Structures are given as C-alpha cells and as structure tokens.
Amino acid sequence: MALECGIVGLPNVGKSTIFSALTAAPAAAENFPFCTIDPNIGIVDLPDERLDFLASIHNPKKKTPAAVKFVDIAGLIKGASQGEGLGNKFLANIRECSVIAHVVRCFDNPDIMHVRDNANEAAPIDPESDILTINWELCQADLDTIAKREEKNIKTVRALGKEAEKQLAPFNSAVAKIKPLLQDGKCARTADLTDDEKNAIYDMFLLSMKPTLYVANVDENTIADGTNKYVDIVKKYADEEKSEVVVICGKFEADLAEITDPADKKDFMESVGLKESGLAVLARKAYHLMGLRTFFTGGPDECRAWTIHAGDKAPRAAGVIHTDFEKGFIRAEAYTIDDLRQYKDEASIKAAGKYRQEGKDYEVQDGDVLFFKFNV
Fold this sequence. Notes:
about 40% helix, six-stranded mixed β-sheet
C-alpha cells in the first residue's frame, strides 16, 4: 500500500480546489459531480520551520524538504459501495491510500449545489449526514471484503482442520468486534482491537480502518474565527472517534497558492489572522498520521529533511540516504534541532556535551540532526 493521503468526500465539497491549492496543479474543479474520474496525484513539499532554521545556520547551496503524496479522489455518493457513480473505481483508489483526508462542506453557497444521496438533487448542508453517508459506503465495502475472506477461511478450515481454526482465532475475534460496528455504519478503526487482532486483519486493507483526518472546508468569513456551526458538528463527530479536524478555507488557500512572493504571502495570511497556511497544517498532520517522521542532515552544500517511519533505527535511517550507508553502518553522530537553537553551532553543542554517538540500536527521533559513519 502506497504512503499517500487520499482526499475524499461528497461531490462539490471542495476536494479538488483544496488539492489544486496543495499541489499548485490544475486539478479539475468544475461545479458538477464526477468531474474527477481518474485520481489526480500530487507531491507536496512539507513546510518545516526546523529545516528553515537549519538552513539559516549553514547557508547551503540547496535546501530539500520532506514531501507528502496526495491523491484527489472523485466524489462519492450513496450507493458507491454497490458501484453507483463509478463507486467501485473510487473505492479502489481509496484502498490504495494509507491515510484519508475526508473533506466536509462547512459553508453556505446557493450557487454551488450540494448533493448527498442523489447526484442530481440538491441537499441541505448537514456535515454529520455527509460524514455518515461516506462512512456508510466505506463500511458496506468492508463488510463485502470480510464476507469474501470468511468464505475463503471456511474452505481453509475444511481442508486443514483444527490447526487452521487455531491460526484463524485472532481473525475471528477481530471480525466479531468489527462486524456489528460496520453494520451500524461505524468505522472499523473505532473497534478496540488487540495487536494480534490488528495483524490478523491487516492484509484486508479495510477502508474504514484507515486513519482519517476530517477537513472542514469553510468560507472566507469563517477564517478569522476558525469555526462555525458546521465546524462544531464536524469536531463533535471527530472527537467521538478520536480523529483530528483541520479547518481550511479552500478558496482562500487557492488564492494564496497563486502568490509567489513570500512577503506577500505572509501579508495575505496576516490580513485574515493566519500565522500559517491551513494546507501546511493539513500536510503536516497527514505526514504524521501516516507514521512518518523527519531527521535532518546539514552542511554548506545541502540542508535536507529525510523521511523515515516512526520507530526506525539508525541503520535504516542511514539507508534512506544510500543503501551503502546502511550496509556499512558504524555509528550515527547526533544532536537535535532544539540543541542547535540553544547552542547556535555544532562546536558549542559538543562543548555542552550534547553531541551524541549512537549505535545500531538507536531509535531515530523526529527532529534529530544526523551524520553517519560507515565503511563498505
């Protein structure tokens, strides 16, 4: 499964506008359902002031940020799990993503038709009903996936007997917890599963099991307050399933994306009371939700943010730079961006006893600055 964030939601909620602003790519955003048939894919630089700070110390020839991959998936409607509105294709695209950004319309605009159950009929703005419609379709698709696996398991038990039954015990107990939730339209990720149960169902890639961010798309009048009656509904729903909410004005972010001068961007954000782009927050939260973390390397030639998985050890991190670094790993010399903020340079960090030598069992931390010693 690819490390990418799929942007999903009902038609006309602002998914493609947000995607276009994220990637500065010309994603289709016409005001009618299913204008996006094939998923648009974009690689987005991850804003990180830690990298900016590191670069301010080294003044490198090149600065390379980490990146997040976003996929703009066409609008789902009721019946997508049964193939309605090209639903099968869209659900397959979601299955390939590791994280979901679920865009929910939180603005009034009579010029943009809101649809929910029927692509040709206007529906009232109702964030909870919108969320439930999407989640219901994901749950129905998951029930179908589970049914097919159970069929296969029955044949396995018939062929292999009690030993197979024993091996399938964690799967069966996981399904016993998940199925009633799915039948109720509640996502599989809300089930209280043991690690063994999670491992037993992992290879089904259940859609409603995927970590999810809710993206409340608001109008420009809501930016300063950061909330409205619709956003409050989204936050209440997200709290119940322990998910996060990012509040974004897609139209504002699209306008912001067209400004190239950093000073002008800053002025434009400050004019509505923003310290940073809502899309920067979305990219960062999606990155962390995918279980990704960042370490840095710095010098006069390049300052760079490197992407690893949470829990990766030093040799694996070295291998992200070059496979030879992992094969011949000797040690990692390490300090943190916070150390650099406090002591200003590497010499002072060493003098303060904060410059570390770490071996092959060291678990790299988000924000580490590393230099690898290796021998091939």
